Structure formats: C-alpha cells, structure tokens
Amino acid sequence: MSKLTKVVKSLHKIPIAKPSIGVSGRTGTWRWMKPVVDLSKCTKCYQCEIYCPDNSILVDVLKGAIVNYEYCKGCGVCAEVCPVKAINMVEEEHYGS
Amino acid sequence: MVLKSLTGNYAVALAVKMARVDVVAAYPITPQTTIVEKLAEYIDRGELDAIMIRVESEHSALAAAYGSAIAGARAFTATSSHGLLYMYEWVNWVSRARVPLVMAVVTRTIGPPWNIWTDHSDYYEQRDTGWIQGFAMDAQEAFDMTLQAFKISEDPRVFLPVMVGLDAFILSHTSMPVEVPEQELVDEWLGVRTQGFIIDGGEALIHGALSSPEHTEEFIEDVGKAMGEAVEVIREVDYSFGRTFGRSYGGLVELYKCDDAKYHIVLMGAWAGDAMEAVDALREQGYSIGVVRVRYTRPFPGEELYKALGSSKGVIVVERGISFGSMGPLFLDLAGNMLKYSRKLPYMRNVIAGVGGVNITYRDFEYIAKETIDYIESGGEPSVMTWYHARWSK
Amino acid sequence: MNSIPILPRDMRNTVLPGHAACHGCPIPMGLKVVGAVFGNKVILVVPACCTSVVLGMHPGTAFNGSVVHVAFASAAAVASGISAGLSRRGVRDVQVVAWAGDGGTADIGMASLSGAAERNDDFIYVMYDNEAYMNTGIQRSSATPTGAWTTTTPLGKKEPKKDVAKILIAHGVPYVATTSIAYPHDFYNKLKKAAGIRGFKFIYLHAPCPIGWRFDPSLTVKVAKLAVETGMIILYEYYDGKVRLSGPSRPLLDKSKRKPIVEYLKLQGRFREINEEELRSLESYVESSWEWIKKFMQ
Given the DSSP bridges, would you call strands B132-135 and B162-167 parallel, antiparallel or unpaired? Predict the structure, then answer.
C-alpha cells in the first residue's frame, strides 16, 4: 500500500532545506593566507582537488589547478599535499573583504 | 461486520493490522507488550504484510518508526510509562518534524517504586510535545480511535503524530465485544498514506537542519496552528467514521446525561464508565448530574468544554495524576482554557484519585459527587483541590 | 571529461563550497568520497555532531544529497527505520548511510549501534573519528587516545582508545572496514564494496581535527597519513570471518617499517604534555592492536 504514499505539499512551515552553494556566505573572506598556483609546475595530478575540504580548487585539464577564491578558506591543505610544491601560501592582502 | 471479543490491546493491534501498517517498531514493556506480540503473530502468519523492527530500546523504537515514516511508510509503535519517558526526546522530535505517525500508550504509573498499574501521569506528561492525544474508554473506542489516528495524523491540514491512550489492565487486558468492520471498507475509508514530504532519494531533501531563531519560531508556531486545525479534522474524521462504520463519538468530548445537568464530572479514561454508572444511580436519588468525558486532551477541546460546563453549578474534575507542586494537569488545562471564553468560571473542584493504580469504583464516584454537591447546595465551598482515597476498592 | 579519474571527477558536485567547516576540516573530505560513490542517491542520517553544523543553516545545505538530521543517540535506529521503510516501498536505488562522529557512535550511540548490527539491518554506518566531542568544543570521548588533552581531560586522558571496529567484528556483521581521510581511494573502494553487500556494514573513518588536536590546518592529510604510517591506525577489512590488511598498512606488519609514534604525536599540540607512562601506554596499544590483527588474519 505504501508504494503509493502520496506527497501532499501544504502551506505548512516545515524544516526542509535544499542543497545550496555558499550556505555560510562567501567563505573566501575567512582567509588570511591564500594559495597561489604556479601553473608552469602543475602536473595536473589532482591531489589538491581531491583533498580540498571546500571543493574550491579544481583542475582544468588544459590549464591546471584553478582556485575558486570566492570560497577558498586558505587552509593550505592543497599546498601541503602538492607533490611538486606548485602551490604557495601567500598572505592575503584583502583581509575580510 | 463481525463481532469479536477483544482486549483493549488486541483491539489496538487489530486496528493497526487493518490500517495496513508497513513497519512496526517493537519493544516490550508491561502492559503494552501484548500489542506488539499480537502484531508479531499477524506478521508471521502472513496476515499483516509488514516489517517488524525488534529494537533494543524504546528510544530506538520511536527513532526507527520515525525513520520508516519519513521514508514514506506507515509506521507504528506502542509503549507505556518508563518506555514513553525513555523516548521522550523522540516524542518531541517527531511532532516538530511534522511526520505523521501513530503510537499507542497503555498508561502505567511511573516509578519508583516499580508499579505496573494504571494512572495517567505518563500520558499527561506528553501534553506539551505537539502530539495529538486521544484516550479510549473501552475496547471498541480503542479500535476506532486507532484507525482514526492514522487518518487524522495524515491529514494535510495536520501532519502531526497521534497518540492513542488506554488504561493498563482495566482496558488493555480486559475483553469486551468489538464490532470489526470489513477490510475493504477500511481500505476505502483510510486510503493510501499521505505526508508533506518523503525522503527517499527522489530529490535531494534535507530535514531538520540547523535553523535561525526566526525560522525556528515559524516552524514551532506552525505546529501550534496545525493543532488548531486538528480540532476540526478530528470532528470531521469522527463524523465520516460514523457515516461509514455506523459509530460516532460526537467529537473531542463525550457528553453523558448532560442535557439538563446542573453538576458535572469531568474525566478521561476507562473509569469514565464507572462515573457514568454513578451518575445513573445519583439521578435516581434526585441529583442533577452528568459526565463530560474528555476524549482528546490535545488539541484541548476548550470550546466544547466551555459550552458544556460554562453554566455548570459545579465542575468536578477527577483525575489519575498530578503535576507535583501545582494541581492536576487536566484541571489546569480546563481552568486555563475556560478563561479563553469567559472570565467568570463556574465552581470547579480538582479531585486526585486512583493514582498508582488504586481501584476507583462507581461508589467512589457517587461519594465524591454527593460530597461536593451537598456542600455547594448548602451554601458551602468544598476545597478546590483534594486527594481522594478509595473507600470501596476492595 | 573521460580522461579525469573517478576521484576527483565524481567528487565535484557533492560537497558544495561555502560551508561552515573549520579550515582543513576532514569531514567534507570524507563526504566528498561518499558523494563520489553515490552521487545524490544517498540519504545521510546525521546525529548531533560537527556535520550537523558543517552543512550550514536552513534553508540551504552544503551537500548534494538527502540528509535526515536526528537526535544524538539514534543514527543507527533511524537508519534501520529508513531502510525498512524504503524496502517496503520497493525503493532500491538509494543508499542509506548513517554518518556519525565518535561521540555519537562509541558513547551515546552504542546501544542503537549494537542493536542495528545485531539485527543486521541493511545500511552503511560510517563513524568518522576526530577523537573527541569536537562540535561542543573538544571534550573527551571514549575514542580519545591516552595522553591527549581535551577540555575535560586537561592533564591528558587516562583510559585507552575504545576500538569500535573490533566491537562490530565481535557482532559478526557482514562487513567492517577501517579507513582514513588520507587515503580517499581506499575509502572509496570500501564504500563501493559495502554498497554491494546486503546487511549491516560498518566503516571507521579516521578524521584528524586541526582545531581539536592543535595542529596547523594545512597538515590534516599529513597527520592522517602519519597515523597510518606509525601503525596507530590500521587500515583493514573484515569479512567472511577474516581480517585483511589494506594497501597502506600491509607493509607495517613488519614492526621495523612503522615510523616511531612520536613523529605523529609531535605534530599535535594535544600531546604536548604527554608523559612517559602515557607514551608507553600508546606504544603498547599499537603493539597489541597489531598482535590482534595478526591473529585475525589467519
């Protein structure tokens, strides 16, 4: 019987949320250090992208690792795992912006 | 339609079976156990096509029932006393989650000391949780109320869980005749399950996420609004049940010999039958008295009760429990709710009796009523609250 | 597109950027792998834990899949219920994953975990272990190792670490595996394998927490790797009655191949005050864990 369970959307206020980017705002403003990729050294091994907790560094098959500075928190994991040290953590010049 | 001799518990189990429940979360506790035992039998005999999750605690019982319900299945569990208290966290969660679900509570005294007999504290302590709460007087009502619980819970105006209460042993383990309808008629009347949302991977939905105070307030207020709508839904369901199965209870409150009554006994549960017997005897002695039996304590039927009691000469609220440090919870609910309709309240008396399962008979009710009425008629004022000790329980 | 390997290709639209996790948090690293295996056809059952907050506030969530938030002790019980409900409705294409921290599993969640395991209910339970109650501000749990500072063990925890994976092996469930965020491919494979088994599956995920363990957020993966390289965390699978070591841990059967545990401990501020006795206790913990593994590999 329950195979036929019906969903009746009502006007009730119910605690249902949906997937969304930027739930905590522009987390790029959390940075005090930022990763800078030396694309000439980047071997596109994907280590940085795999480990990034914020899904904010993506490897472009042609160019190499590209950082999404809107959301990158500057944790430095990418720089640490990069096997060829192509990523440098430099001081963020725009604090809190 | 078939007439069967069923205990209160078996009546509930049969109703759950006929409602075509999908998942039963089962954990034993006296005196609810025979409900889940009977359901296990139904499932193993192939009479009920459902899954039984034999959980390891009551807290998990309601958690598991909730999981099945949020995934779209009709779910049920039953408990009593300490089991109900153990799952209290989940009782609060399910209602705020707006997931339709039905639970039977066979009311039993809370310990220490250990005690297996009936009183209503465990049940009444759930009054703030946002569950719709109904209380049955006899096996027929236990059966009917359980079936109705699914329909009320799954009504889109409500989407709140429903608790069906019945007294330990005096109802749960006492056999009475029950009219059992045809399965086809139940299927037609109850229909398929409906709910406001389902989490089954069909679309990415997140339920219960951290929310701001403002959003939270909206959700909580909505529970209150749904409770308000539930009054009408309960009446409608009772009415349509009556049209389909031939039995209606008249709404959230049952009035017995109240048409011309000057005095009223207000109570809930199996002992209402004894109160009705007492009223019959009292009327023969010339007393003008009736019984107002509260069937649903949540949503609290303030309007119906005010209509019945607003111009009473004396309202005697007899109840099987107490809010320590204050008064009986049913009395407090009644007094508070009456104030919504008038600042002038009738004379009201709170009698605490039968706590711990002490047996109260129709003679006790006669005594209580006579004492109160005689006092008032002679111009006196009996105490507003009194603890009544049974005189004829042996 | 096809030239991009599964990891990271299938991780891309799983954990959405802009969530509330601390810098270098291992939790989204783990969730990316879950997303890579199941896409949005997953229902996470999440009790009170860091993840409840990491995913962000209503009306948005940083995960592209379904999540049912639940009361603290009940991840396993609700997952059992969802699994039963879905099976009743003939829904077969979505994976139920209880995703809980060490506190919600090894402590308050132990009873419901054991219940679901004993009943062999059909879902995957992932316990991510950051070795304390991190969400409430770093209080010790039974999974905190000896000698570690926490706010409720300022002088270092006395008791040894509770080994939840072993407890599940004792329950005789179809599949138990230990994993680490340092080895996402290993975690991926084990999740995939678990998804193909009917019954109760338990996966332990070691998840170092920069804030709670006191190390620089950039070192999360390095610390996690050292935990395995020193033998403190052993990666294995248990099924069909036997323990089978996983790739990164295999060579470490040979004691001489394990890095000294101080290399792991010295990176973490929470072990700064560790004394000799506690250090020896940790070393013998590692020793006896490996002895146990050897026995169960026969």
Answer: parallel
Kindly state the average pLDDT of the residues C170-188. Answer: 98
Find the residue in A nearest to B99 (Cα). Answer: A14
pLDDT digits (tens, 9 = 90+) for C43-98: 999 999 999 999 999 999 999 999 999 999 999 999 999 999 999 999 999 999 99
How many angstroms separate the CA of residue C295 from the nearest CA in chain A?
34
What range does the domain containing B355 cover? Answer: 253-387
Among B214, B245, B276, give the residue marking a domain's end. B245
Interface contact flag, C88 B50, Cβ < 8 Å: yes
pLDDT grade for B381, boundaries at 50, 70 and 90: confident
| B23 and B55 belong to one structural domain | yes
| Domain end residue (candidates: B229, B245, B261) | B245
Pairing between β-strand B2-7 and β-strand B175-180 as defined by DSSP bridges = antiparallel
Enumerate neighbours of A (3 or more CB pairs within 8 A): B, C
On whether the CB atoms of residues B26 and B40 are closer than 8 A, the answer is: yes
User: What domains can be seen in chain C, in order of their start residue?
Assistant: 6-296 (3.40.50.970)
Residues B257 and B231 in one domain: no
The third-level CATH classification (topology) of the domain covering A37-92 is Alpha-Beta Plaits (3.30.70)
Residue B393: inside a domain, yes or no? Answer: no
For the stretch C218-263, pLDDT in tens is 999 999 999 999 999 999 999 999 999 999 999 999 999 999 999 9
Other residues' Cβ atoms within 10 Å of the Cβ of residue C242: 11
Side-chain-side CA neighbours of B27 within 13 Å: the count stands at 25
Q: How much is the pLDDT for A11?
A: 80
| Chain B to chain C Cβ contacts (< 8 Å) | 161
Same domain for B284 and B155, yes or no, is no
Per-residue pLDDT band at B391 (split at 50, 70, 90)? confident
Pairwise CB contact (< 8 Å): C184 & A51 = yes
Domain boundaries of chain A, sorted by first residue: 37-92
Using a cut of 0.80, tell me whether the model's pTM lies above it: yes
A18 and B205 within 8 Å at the Cβ level: the answer is: yes
Cα B295 to Cα B165: distance, rounded to the nearest angstrom = 10
Distance (Å, whole) CA B217 – CA B292: 35
Residues B258 and B129 in one domain: no
Secondary structure of residue C95 in the 3-state scheme: strand
CB contact under 8 A, C55 and B93: no
